[in-house]
Predict the structure.
Amino acid sequence: MPVLDLNNDIMVKKYENYVKESPYGHMLQSMGWKEVKNNWDADYVFLEDDNGEIRAALSILSVKNDGENAFMYAPRGPVCDFYDIETVQELIKEAIPVVKKRNGFFLRMDPEVLQDNELVEKYRGLGYAFRSNEQENIKVFTNPKHNMILDLEDISEEEVMKLFSSNQRTKIRKTYKNGLSTRIIRVSDLIFEEALDRFYSLTVDMSKRQGILYRPKEYFVRLMNGYSDACIFETFDDENEVLSTCIVVSYNKKSFYIYAASSNNKRNLNASIQMNYEAILYAIRNGSKQYDMGGIFDFEPSNGLFMFKYNFCGVNGHKEFIGELDVVFNEELYSAFNGK
C-alpha cells in the first residue's frame, strides 16, 4: 500500500524530492510543514508508475479537536494535475486506510488551481463536496482563496523594476536615498537568534497595533528549521534600528512572503517597501518563478494591505483559487464543522 513508511529513509527522501520538484508541489505539501504544525498527525500517500517512480502525492495533516474525530487536511494538495480527476480519485482511494486509522470525518484539499467553475461541477458530479465561489464570505476557507502573486518568469534583477508603476519605483528608490538597508539572515548565521528575537518583538508590536492575534515564538523557530531555504529579511535605518522584518521561504521555484512585521517607529520611511523589493531580487537570484505575497480578503483601494500587495503584484497578480474539495465520511460532523 503506497503510504509512506517514515522509517524508510530512501523513500522519505524520494517523496520529499518529488514534492519539491513536481510542477504541482507546494511548501505546504512538503514534509517540512509537519515540523511547523507539530501538534498535528501526518501521513503521506503516493502513487507510483510502472517504473516505481512517484507520479502523485498527498501529504495529509490531521487533528482531533474533539479528541475523537479527525479533521484531515492536505493543504495546497494534491501534488498532481488537479484536472486529472482519475489520478486524484486514485489518491483518495489510497488515503482511505489513513482516514480509518485517524478516524477522519472528512478529508480536505485546496490546490493552487485557478477558479474553474466547470471543473468544480465535475467533482461535484462525482459526489464530492466542493466549497468554491458560491461562498459569500471568502474568510471561511482554510487557506486564502485569493492571493497576490508576482510573476517572475523570465524576469532578471535588472528588469524587475520595470514591472512596477512609476510611483512605486519612486517609493522604492526613495527608501535607499533615505538611508535604509536590508540584510538577509539564515538559521546558520551567528546573528540568527538576535534576528528572530527582533522579528518576534516586532510581530508582537504590530499585532497590538492592529488588534490581531499572533503565534508563539516557537512556531517561527520550527518554520525556520523546517525549510532549508527560509530566511529572515531585516530593513534598518542608518542608526541600525530594524524597522521591518519578514520570513521568506523559497520552495519549488516559488518564494513565499509568509510572515512579516513592522515597527511603530519611522513608518514614513516605508521600510517594508524596500524589504519586499530586496526579497523579490532574492527570489529571482534563487530561481523562483513567483513571489507569493499571500492572501487578500478585501479588494478595495481603500484597504491598505491590498494596495500594498497590489503595488508590487499589479492587476494580473490577483489570483483566485478554485476552493476546497472535501471528501466527506460523516455528514453530520462535516455539517457541524462548516457551521451549517
Notes: Residues 114 and 264 are 37 Å apart (CA to CA). The first strand starts at residue 41 and ends at 48. The mean pLDDT is 96. The domain at 147-320 is CATH 3.40.630.30 (Aminopeptidase).
